[in-house]
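W.,

You were right to be curious about this one. When I first looked at the sequence I had no strong expectations either way, so I just let the prediction run and decided to look at it fresh. Below is the sequence, 129 residues in total, followed by the output.
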Amino acid sequence: MNNIDLMKYWFESANSDFDTMKVLFENKKNTWCLFLGHLVIEKMLKGLYARNNPENPIAPKIHNLILLSQKVKLEVPNEIREKIQVINTFNISARYDDYKKSFAEKCTNNYTAEQVKNIEEVQKWLKEQ
């Protein structure tokens, strides 16, 4: 698969996960909604990595959004970087049992709505890149 095909694969997968995230949000499955939000941003970054690295388009097998954005070599504005730092925590928090309880308590409907908005803003910014 060349870098453009790989980029399209990642973006299409991110869009599908975005749709699923919205369904989870509507059904108040807040922790999994935010976990999927993390995946949306991760896949967008991996798509940009593929686009920017035609000789080696396979993105690193990492989930850390901050490291991925550095490897993509994006000039990330502070406002977006701060949102990415928060979104980055949703991967671990929703995945591991010892974090799930405290994360679930944090994921009120208002908090989740705010974070879904942040995920949408970061996704939009990444699409513009």
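Here's what jumped out at me. The two ends are 22 Å apart (CA to CA). And, maybe more interesting for your project: The domain at 3-128 is CATH 1.20.120.330 (Four Helix Bundle (Hemerythrin (Met), subunit A)).

Coffee later to discuss?

I.
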